[in-house]
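Problem 12. The chain below contains 83 residues. Write out its predicted structure in token notation.
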Amino acid sequence: MSRVCELTGKGPMTGNNVSHSNRKTKRKFLPNLITKKFFIPEMDRWVTLKVSTSALRTINKLGVYAYLKDLEKKGEIKLISEE
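Solution.
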């Protein structure tokens, strides 16, 4: 499974480990991802998402449905229409 946030698109970055003697070796910075299940009452369904903790903070602030609607308005995701 890829280490990419499904909402924000955050993924791994590369950089350097720098030792005390200033030698540089390549390393990977992985995003802080959490697999979480959300209930969306407006759609009356559960959704499992792999999200970064920064996206989780925004979801806690706005609500999951409002955050998904905002991403849909920006054109970043396609939200399944309500039945």
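Discussion. Helices lie at 53-62, 64-74. Students who got a different answer should revisit the alignment rule from Section 12.3.
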